[in-house]
Amino acid sequence: MPLTFTSLADIYDHGFDTVIDVRSPAEHAEDHIPDAISLPVLDNAERARVGTLYKQTSPFAARKIGAALVFRNAADHIEHRLAHHDRNWRPLVYCWRGGQRSGSFTWLLKEIGWRAEVVEGGYRTYRRLVTQALYDQPLNHRFIQLGGYTGTAKTALLPMLVARGVQVLDLEGLAGHRGSLLGEMPGGQPAQKAFESQLAAKLHHFDPARPVIVEAESSKIGGINLPPSLWEGMKAAPWFEIQAPVEERARYLDQAYDDVLSDGARLKDRLSPLRLHRGHALVDQWEAMIDAGERRALCQSLVEDHYDPAYDKSMRAITPNVAARFETDHLDDATLETVADQIAERVQTTVI
């Protein structure tokens, strides 16, 4: 009998040795159960071929070809990728909806002697539970937003806070984006579903009795939308604000955005849309700085003429409850460690 999971906690705490996703590589790449390994019994082209046969010829013809492909690929997995497992190995298998792909593979594993089980409803069951957690129910977590002008090293502080035992939700890390005009990161962003899977797993492992630090963001990070339950929790959260001099923030941005600042053509392309908002003269000035290699001056101008005005406008709109401010003249690692100490101490005494 397939195993029925009624909550995300049941899935996260499944107790099996390995979770196996037998869907196609494209399906797995879009999203999957956390830590699941990809052992497709139909690759992308094979899945498309079987689907076409099902629609254009007959379900019987599709099942016949599909079965041959499934067992051929399953045999290859068993001979090569799974051969090292002993007889006590317990795998949990799923496909799109807990149907023929996962059922066939699980049957074969059981025939060998492994204690394999299949997820009832497959990935669709898991996805429904993620959606319920992030879209249909309020979160039972208490948040503190870490805010401040662009370049105040908020992202750099997050791992320092983790090292001090503070619960931290790094949304930019999960979204693969630095959350600003120049925020693209190498490797690009995950799919929305994959982001939500990572987010739900992170939230599950937090202690609801303790606050969670989250960097202040808008409701969208690059191309990723924050689920409403998280966004509502963030809007209601008090703020810790970091303050630092403009010159020091420009220095920090020069280092933190090195990958973007080192590519002049790409940088100009990213700044071009601001002609509509900041005017041609200012963007022309930025482009001249790029051509001259004046990175620090460019960063300072971006801070003073773009990022800070945008931040001030957003602060007037949301009027956050700033529970604490942390001022620092420098943003080097040693100074940030001291700021992290101060924030970690304040977290313990902040009433939410």
Rounded radius of gyration (Å)? 25 Å
Strand order of the largest sheet: 6-7-5-10-11
* Fraction of residues in helix: 40-55%
| Overall pLDDT confidence | 95
Low-confidence stretches: none
DSSP summary: helix tally: 17
Overall number of strands = 11
Overview of this protein structure:
The relative contact order is 0.11. By secondary structure, the protein is α/β, with parallel strands linked by helices. The protein contains 17 helices and 11 strands. The mean pLDDT is 95. It has a 5-stranded parallel beta sheet with strand order 6-7-5-10-11, sandwiched between helices. Strands 2-1-3-4 form a 4-stranded parallel beta sheet, covered by helices on one side.
